[in-house]
C-alpha cells in the first residue's frame, strides 16, 4: 500500500493507543473534512485526518478533484480549479496543525469509547487506533452510467452536477440531456432550462419517479422533452467536446433501436451513494443510507451530532439535499464546534467521575482527559 503523511507543526500529545487516544480523528478529505480540521486545529485539539488513498475511487480532496473550474465558491471571483481549491484547503489544515495521513479507513468500532479505527491493510485487533471523538466526512459518490465515450467526455460535456456545471459556457444555448426520472432529475432539468436551448430527459422506464408536483412541472416545461424507455449508450464528439449521443430504446417490447441525437451535454441525475460502508450499521441512517444528524441539544436547530455520542457527521455523507462544497464546508464547521464542546464537557465529566472514584488519588486534568478515558464512566 502506498502512503505518506505530513507532520503537523506541533505533534499531538496523544499517540492513538488505548491508554492515550487521539482527541479527534477526521475521516475524509473534502471541503467538510478540511473545514472541520481547520477549526479543530485552531482550537488546539490536534486533529488527525485520514484523507483516504483513492477511497471509494476518489482521490484525496474529494469530489471537487473530479471537476474542472469551480465558479461558486466564495472568495474566488474568477473561479478556481477544483483540485487547486482542495490543495489550498489541505495546506490550511496542515498550517494550523492537522496531521494528515494518506490512508483509507477500512473498519470502525463505535460500540464503546474510545472509538477504534483501522486502516486498510492493518486490520488486526492490536492495530486499532483509538480516539475520543470521530468526525465522519466521507462524502458521497455520484452514480454514473458507463458506456463508450462516457469517460472520454467526462467534464468535457458530461457531468453529474447541473447546479455546479450547468452555467458553464460549453452548455449555454446548447441541447442537453438529463438522465434520470426522480425528483433530482426533474429539478436538474428545470434548472438547466435557464441556460440551455433544449433539455431532453431520458427516463429508463415509462414512468417518472419524481413527485407529482415536480413531474407536472417538468412535463409542462416548453424547453423540456421527456423520452420514455430511453438511455444513452454512446457519447460521440469531436475529440474536444461532446457533440452527439446515441440513445437506445429500453422498453421490454421495443426493438432496442438506437438513434443518434445532437447534444452537447449529458447530466447524470441517477442518485448518489453516501460513503457509509465503513460504518457497518453502527449509526442511524435514513432509508437511503445518509447519516442522520440530530437536532441541536439546546437550540433544537440543526447540528452535526449523530445517534452515537461523540461521533459527528458533516458534508455530503449526511446531506442529500444541497450537496455543494460551501454547504459541506459549513457543516464541517458545525461538526468541529459540536465536537469541541463535546470534548470539553467529556473532559469535565471524566474529571468529576475520576475524582469521585479515586478521591485519594491526585490526577491532573490532562491525565484525566486522555489516559483514563477508556475506564471512565460515560453517559
Ligand atoms: C463533477 C462534480 C462537480 C462539482 N462541482 C461543484 C461546484 O462547482 N461547486 C460546488 O459547490 N460543488 C460542486 N460539486 C459538489 C461538491 O464537490 C460536493 O458537494 C463536496 O465535495 C462534498 O464535500 P464532502 O466534504 O462532503 O466530501 P467529498 O468531496 O465527497 O470527499 C470525501 C472524501 O472522503 C474520502 N473517503 C471516503 N471514504 C473514506 C474512508 N473510508 N477513509 C478515508 N477517506 C475516505 C473520499 O475518497 C473523498 O476524497 C461537484 C460535484 C461533482 C461530482
Give me the CATH superfamily of the largest domain: FAD/NAD(P)-binding domain
The level 1 CATH classification of the largest domain is: Alpha Beta
Bound molecules: flavin-adenine dinucleotide
Low-pLDDT stretches are 1-8, 356-379
Number of domains: 2
Beta-strand percent range: 15-25%
Which structural category fits the helices and strands?
alpha/beta
Distance between the termini: 39 Å
What is the correct CATH architecture of the largest domain? Answer: 3-Layer(bba) Sandwich
- List SSEs in N-to-C order: EEHEEEHEEEEEEHEHEHEEEEEEEHH
Mean pLDDT: 89
Number of strands: 20
For the largest beta-sheet, the strand count, sense and barrel status come to: 8 strands, mixed
Q: Please give the share of residues in helix.
A: 10-25%
Would you tell me which CATH topology of the largest domain applies?
FAD/NAD(P)-binding domain
Radius of gyration: 24 Å
How many H/I helices? 7
Outline type: elongated
Keywords: Disulfide bond, FAD, Flavoprotein, NADP, Oxidoreductase, Redox-active center
Subunit structure: Homodimer.
EC number: 1.8.1.9
GO biological process, one term: removal of superoxide radicals
Detailed description of the structure:
Helices cover 23% and strands 23% of the residues. It has 379 residues and is α/β, with parallel strands linked by helices. It has 2 domains: 221 residues, FAD/NAD(P)-binding domain; 125 residues, FAD/NAD(P)-binding domain (3-Layer(bba) Sandwich), CATH 3.50.50.60. Strands 1, 2, 3, 6, 7, 8, 9 and 20 form an 8-stranded mixed sheet that branches. It has a 5-stranded parallel sheet with strand order 11-18-12-13-14. Helix 1 packs parallel to helix 2, helix 1 packs across helix 6 and helix 4 runs parallel beside helix 5. It is elongated, with a radius of gyration of 24 Å. The chain starts with a strand and ends in a 10-residue tail after the last helix.
Amino acid at each position: 500500500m502506498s502512503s505518506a503523511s505530513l507532520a503537523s507543526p506541533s505533534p499531538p500529545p496523544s499517540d492513538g493507543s488505548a491508554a492515550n487516544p487521539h482527541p479527534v480523528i477526521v475521516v475524509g478529505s473534502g471541503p467538510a473534512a478540511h473545514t472541520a480540521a481547520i477549526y479543530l486545529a485552531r482550537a488546539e485539539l490536534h486533529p488527525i485526518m485520514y484523507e483516504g488513498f483513492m477511497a471509494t475511487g476518489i482521490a484525496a480532496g474529494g469530489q471537487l478533484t473530479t471537476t474542472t473550474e469551480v465558479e461558486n465558491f466564495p472568495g474566488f471571483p474568477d473561479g478556481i480549479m477544483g483540485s487547486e481549491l482542495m490543495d489550498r484547503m489541505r495546506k490550511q489544515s496542515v498550517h494550523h496543525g492537522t496531521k494528515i495521513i494518506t490512508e483509507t479507513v477500512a473498519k470502525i468500532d463505535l460500540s464503546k469509547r474510545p472509538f477504534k479505527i483501522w486502516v486498510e491493510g492493518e486490520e488486526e485487533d492490536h492495530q486499532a487506533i483509538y480516539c475520543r471523538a470521530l468526525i465522519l466526512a466521507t462524502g458521497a459518490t455520484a452514480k454514473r452510467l458507463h458506456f463508450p465515450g462516457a469517460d472520454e467526455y467526462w467534464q468535457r460535456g458530461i457531468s453529474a452536477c447541473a447546479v455546479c456545471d450547468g452555467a458553464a459556457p460549453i452548455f449555454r444555448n446548447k441541447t442537453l440531456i438529463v438522465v434520470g426520472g426522480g425528483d433530482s432529475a426533474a429539478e436538474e432539468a428545470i434548472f438547466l432550462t435557464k441556460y440551455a436551448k433544449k433539455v431532453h430527459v431520458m427516463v429508463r422506464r415509462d414512468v417518472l419517479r419524481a413527485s407529482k408536483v415536480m413531474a407536472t412541472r417538468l412535463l409542462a416545461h416548453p424547453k423540456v422533452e421527456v423520452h420514455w424507455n430511453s438511455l444513452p449508450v454512446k457519447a460521440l464528439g469531436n475529440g474536444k467536446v461532446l457533440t452527439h449521443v446515441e440513445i437506445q430504446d429500453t422498453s421490454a417490447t421495443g426493438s432496442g433501436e438506437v438513434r443518434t441525437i445532437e447534444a452537447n451535454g449529458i447530466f447524470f441525475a441517477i442518485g448518489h451513494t453516501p460513503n457509509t460502508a465503513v460504518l457497518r450499521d453502527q449509526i442511524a441512517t435514513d432509508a437511503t443510507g445518509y447519516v442522520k444528524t440530530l437536532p441541536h441539544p439546546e437550540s433544537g436547530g440543526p447540528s452535526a451530532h449523530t445517534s452515537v455520542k461523540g461521533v459527528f457527521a458533516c458534508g455530503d455523507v449526511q446531506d442529500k439535499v444541497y450537496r455543494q462544497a460551501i454547504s459541506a464546508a459549513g457543516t464541517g464547521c458545525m461538526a468541529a464546534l459540536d465536537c469541541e464542546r463535546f470534548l470539553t464537557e467529556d473532559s469535565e465529566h471524566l474529571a468529576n467521575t475520576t475524582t469521585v472514584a479515586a478521591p485519594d488519588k491526585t490526577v491532573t486534568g490532562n491525565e484525566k482527559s486522555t489516559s483514563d478515558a477508556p475506564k471512565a464512566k460515560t453517559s
